[in-house]
Structure prediction request, 368 residues.
Amino acid sequence: MSALRTACQNLIDLLEPIAELGSYLLLFVRAFLSPKAQAAATIVALSSQLAAHQRRVEHKQQPRPRFSPAFRVLWVILSRVLEGWENFAHPMKPATVKRWHKQGWRLYWRWRSRRRGRPALDQERRGLIRRLSRENPLWSAERIRDTLLLLGFAPPCEDTIRKYMVKPRKPRPPSTTWLPFLRNHLDISWAIDFFTVTTLSFATLYVFLAFEHGRRRVVHSAVTRSPSMEWVIQQLREAMPFGLQPRYLFRDNDGIYGHGVALFLDHCGVREVRTALQSPWQNPYVERFIGTLRRELLDHVTVLNEPHLERLLGEFIAEYYHAARPHQGLGGDTPMPTETPPPLRGPTTLVATPVLGGLHHRYERRAA
Prediction:
């Protein structure tokens, strides 16, 4: 209801100046068609009233009149078509009429020069720009424009692309995210982590793993009842003989590592990369291996003691995980690369080798 009332009021405000200009036009037509004597008498009558009004204004007996927009437009037109119009401009100064003319001219050219701009982008291209900028924080507007051009879209200019790019809440220098950084350093990075196993007697055993990202290979594993910083450093010495150190080592913020592990890695020339607190997804490969180890081994056996767990881990890793278990991340290959067997002619048979008492099997194709 209020919107309708506002629209009606705006329409009335627009029609009022038009109606007033129409009344002025009717007065002009009437004066133009009337006899000269009657026109002269009308002019005298109007001039006398105007003079009386002017004297009252000069003696401050009456405030100065406020001129309507239509009145201003009328006098701007008269100033262009009537000679000597300054002699008839009694209620206002001629400079005032000239100022009205300048204001009207300025408004006209502002309307003529209004910026229409380019047509707005369609929803599809706006969504593409946001997606490309969100998935590729290092890409500039020029790079996104070239990519859209290669994809067959009609790209807008760089300034328009910057308008629709995803802007971070806290502006910072462009940097890649955690997972792309990890993928770009797979062949030169390892990860270490702990997990626990409960034995038949409800004792807790701590398993230490050193995991190579490139081939998803377990470099070293060890089991203990009471891990310490010195014990971890010794395991790292055994896992990283001279010349075989990785460039990066990912680890969490477990208190077992203490300050000595960081000093040891720095002395070995290994750059330590710590994950954020309570963010296991930042160390995904070793966490995934621990999940695989539980699902495919530890959930199906009862660990008796420390030597029993060491034997199970050793057999699972060496006989099955490294040698026979394919990985999608390796294109279906195993962590320890296997040679493709030569093609066999004639009938063949499949030979199964049990691993971990038949919990898993390794298979080999042989000639019958």
Q: What stands out?
A: The domain at 180-330 is CATH 3.30.420.10 (Nucleotidyltransferase; domain 5). The chain has a mean pLDDT of 79. The beta strands are 189-198, 204-212, 217-224, 248-251, 271-274, 348-355, 360-367.
